[in-house]
Design a protein that fits this description.
The chain is an alpha+beta fold and about 55 residues long. The protein is built from 2 helices and 3 strands. It has one domain (about 1-40). It has helices at about 1-5, 35-40, and strands spanning about 10-20, 25-30, 35. A 3-stranded antiparallel beta sheet has the order 1-2-3. The radius of gyration is 13 Å and the shape is globular. The two termini are about 20 Å apart.
């Protein structure tokens, strides 16, 4: 993720929920309309959230 963030300008896009249950602001990091999180998933470095912690956490 650090390499992706340092590769150039990015945008923080709002989502349907403003904050999580702990009050943290929620955003999707994008560059050129592409989610950097999706880039990590596509590269096999992350998984989409399934709504619960997996055994690997």
């Amino acid at each position: 993720m650090a390499d992706l963030l340092n590769a150039g300008a990015f945008t923080l896009e709002p989502i349907e929920r403003e904050t999580d249950r702990y009050g943290r602001t929620l955003r999707i990091i994008t560059r050129g309309g592409t989610s950097l999180g999706d880039v990590l998933v596509d590269e096999g470095l992350a998984e989409h959230w399934q709504g619960f912690r997996g055994g690997w956490c």
